[in-house]
From TrEMBL:
Residues 14-24 have a biased composition (Basic and acidic residues). Residues 300-309 have a biased composition (Low complexity). The keyword Repeat applies. This is MORN repeat containing 1. PANTHER family: MORN REPEAT-CONTAINING PROTEIN 1, PHOSPHATIDYLINOSITOL-4-PHOSPHATE 5-KINASE RELATED. InterPro entries: MORN. Keywords: Repeat. It holds the Pfam family MORN. The lineage of its organism: Eukaryota, Metazoa, Chordata, Craniata, Vertebrata. The keyword Zinc-finger does not apply. Residues 1-24, 299-344, 379-403 are annotated as: Disordered.
Length: 465
């Protein structure tokens, strides 16, 4: 700190110092000619030397060591303009070395400084309570460091000019983790994320987004799948990217299989069998991509506690992909669940649902057979009986029966007709906030012994009469 050549000086004891000059040695008070500085402390050879306090007219001050007129050594400085206070080492009037800076806006820094700036290793706590331990350069986080953010997330890795850049690991409060490359504070480059939902993605990231992420669910197989009444089938499902490739970089997405049956409201005099659904069930039709709506229909499961259709049991050895049994004599389907609203997790973008089987009509679904024109329909050539479809319809208000119809006995298995299988993304919480669209597959259940041409089951009119 430069000394003024003229000014007023007072000492604790009489001195021989010339009037208007700073004290020569010992302890004294000196007010500089510009009246902006006032020093009180030790002197040596006419210079501030030792312990002293320098006050500024704007309210700032420094108190600590002086060497040959300069602020050097240990001390404390307060800046009135910013409200910041620094305690620590000084060199030639600037904070340099190790010290603690307390900020008026909140927070503090403890560590190394150079020319008044954070430089080297230190710990910074900001006004929001976020904490950083690590390297600094030019007052910015730079190099290796660890930071705990306000929301509890924690990052450890490389920094470049206050940005996460290079290699690092992020641990989120929800349990998700990311380890890999960063650029400008976001995931960029090769990296792996283990999401709290159970999804794991390993691959390239661009601007915080996975480059090879799945965007759709695809059920493999023909456009319309045919299955025999009472039998089971296996579905192979892929998670695909926009370009149609399998999203092999992704594991653990949770998918759920469900079913629906075609929903149609038919006139009272119809020649087609359908279900009358009780008004109290409140079924909401689901729009399908096949040009019709469906309502939910149960899938049968050996482990769900419901009755297993006899035909399904008889054909289990032929239709099931599992071994026929084990040394204990139990069927294989009792050891591996089928599809009770079943869920599977994807592995390398693929899922397989085995032993998928439609269950019997649930309570409230009443099969109705129209007798009007039944003989004429039965006498038509094959293929002209409405394609063998069995749509769903609601009965009239109040549950009254339609004229000329008879209610069928409860079925032990699904009737032949048109159904829909649906695969939903039920990953919770959604991976990166995005849920994949539901996939649909058109399923036709063929009557037993009908070959590839499904038909609607009809009862003998004489028996009904």
């Amino acid at each position: 700190m430069a000394s003024a050549s003229e000014g007023r000086a007072t000492t604790c004891r009489p001195r021989r110092d010339l009037p208007g000059r700073p004290p020569r040695d010992g302890y004294g008070v000196y007010v500089y000619p510009n009246s902006f500085f006032r020093y009180e402390g030790e002197w040596r050879g006419g210079k501030k030397h030792g312990r002293g306090k320098l006050l500024f007219k704007d309210g700032s001050y420094y108190e600590g060591d002086f060497v040959d007129g300069e602020i050097t050594g240990e001390g404390c400085q307060h800046w009135a303009l910013t409200g910041n206070t620094y305690t620590g080492q000084f060199v030639l009037g600037e904070p340099q070395g190790h010290g603690v800076m307390k900020y008026q806006a909140g927070g503090h820094y403890e560590g190394e400084l150079f020319h008044g700036l954070r430089e080297g290793h230190g710990c910074l706590v900001d006004a929001d309570g976020q904490v950083y331990w690590g390297s600094f350069h030019d007052n910015k986080r730079h190099g290796q460091g660890r930071m705990i953010f306000r929301n509890g997330d924690e990052y450890e890795g490389n920094w470049v000019r206050d940005q996460r850049q290079g290699h690092g690991m992020l641990r989120l409060m929800d349990g998700s983790t990311y380890e890999g490359q960063w650029h400008s504070g976001v995931f960029s480059g090769q990296g792996s994320m283990a999401h709290c939902s159970g999804v794991i993605y390993r691959g390239m990231w661009i601007n915080g987004h996975p480059m090879a992420q799945a965007t759709r669910i695809v059920i493999l197989g023909p456009e319309v799948m045919d299955t025999a009444q009472g039998s089971s089938l296996t579905l192979t499902v892929q998670l695909q990217r926009d370009n149609g490739e399998v999203a092999m970089s992704e594991d653990g997405r949770e998918l759920e299989i469900s079913a629906g049956v075609r929903y149609v409201q038919l006139p009272a005099y119809s020649e087609v069998s359908f279900f009358r659904v009780d008004d109290g069930l409140g079924q909401t039709p689901i729009q399908t991509p096949f040009g019709f709506q469906c309502i939910s229909y149960p899938l049968s499961s050996p482990e769900s506690g419901g009755p297993e259709p006899r035909a399904a049991l008889e054909s289990a050895s032929a239709d099931s992909p599992f071994p026929e049994g084990d040394p204990g004599g139990l069927p294989a389907w009792r050891h591996k669940p089928s599809c009770p609203g079943n869920r599977r997790r994807a592995e390398q973008g693929c899922v397989q649902f085995s032993d998928v089987r439609l269950g019997p009509p649930p309570p409230g679904y009443h099969a109705v057979l129209f007798l009007e024109g039944l003989r004429e329909v039965g006498s038509r050539p094959r293929g002209q009986d409405h394609g063998g479809t069995m749509p769903i319809a609601q009965g009239p208000p109040g549950g009254s029966r339609l004229d000329g119809v008879a209610t069928a006995e409860p079925a032990a298995e699904a009737f032949p007709g048109e159904y829909v299988l649906m695969i939903r993304d039920v990953t919770t919480p959604p991976f990166l906030g995005h849920t994949l669209p539901t996939a649909f597959k058109h399923l036709r259940v063929l009557a037993r012994g009908a070959g590839q041409q499904p038909h609607v089951p009809r009862e003998d009119p004489k028996a009904l009469s």
